[in-house]
Amino acid sequence: MRFLTVGPTQLFDSVPSYIEEALKNNICSISHRSKDFENIFRATTSALKELMDIPEDYHIFFLSSATESMERIIENLVDEKSFHFVNGAFSNRFFTIAQESGKKPEKIEVDFGEGFDFNNLRLPENTDLICFTHNETSTGVMIDLKDIYKFKEQNPDSLVAVDIVSSAPYCNIDFRKIDAAFFSVQKGFGLPAGLGVLIVNDSCIERSKQLRKKQSIGSYHNFLTLLQKSEKNQTPETPNVLGIYLLGKIAEELNRYGIDNIRKETQQRADILYSFFENNDNYEIFVKEKKIRSSTVIVINALDGSEKIINKLRQNNYLIGAGYNNFKKTQIRISNYPMVTMHDVKEIIKHF
Ligand SMILES: *Cc1c(COP(=O)(O)O)cnc(C)c1O
Questions:
Q1: Which residues pair with 24 in a beta bridge?
Q2: Global pTM exceeds 0.85
Q3: At CA 74, angle to CA 70 and CA 78, rounded to 5?
């Protein structure tokens, strides 16, 4: 079975051999305070920095999931007010985490399948943090990064955090133009779930230092203890060592393959899928505005319902996703992450 689901998803073909190698090298038994672990930490962070062009002075923290990253970001960067761009389930989750953490978040909210009108948008005063979801996995909307950069330029006093869970590593994000970004590994990195990666700059560290003087920024994983440990290539707690190891191996593999090739091929597959559905009477592309159609999560209205086609594909060894929540019966979601091949795309198209 090939999993063209939006997450968890298909593993990279090489993952089993990396797991075998990890077992052979006792990766799952070594101490997280050992030189061996520090070497793994260093190898993974440096491969990630190369792959995603993360500046040397940005910090990489390992957490348990992307949802944890949202909570840590709110706790460590927001005194009172965050502002959220909400256009689906994951961006809304970021907002509710801020609410439940006792902050006073505000939001601009648009319907599923829509993007945002950045013109005429005023940020509420004293906003500590602006939160974007680059690729809304529930709807297949991918915000133009240029709009995010421009909004940050217009509001230089607020920090900007970007959820890149289902666009990394495809997304060519300029880290210099944002302050924090995060992802988890069971989507575009084709790895087993259980590891979140959070990337922050020194402005974030500075903010959490200031915040700590007046309120709790958390104990288990706050930015200051994460930083202190990461400077020694370590983590505060016993981490998911296997996950960190595997992420390093996949990042190295993708570096050898070339991120430009990955981006180009992802776009080619997305173009083929969208143009196929554009010309098929039984299906319709959910996101109407071309500029914001996701390259990595393709969301399609199935006019005959989603169930039949999902079952048909399953019988042919392909698993695709149903629509999110209320759209379960009427939509399908197809992942187009880096491990998906042109062969996969051609195979699934045959069955529609
Ligand atoms: C899957 C997903 C998350 C949540 O990731 P977890 O690792 O399950 O916490 C957050 N944001 C987006 C955009 C996602 O697709």
A1: none
A2: yes
A3: 160
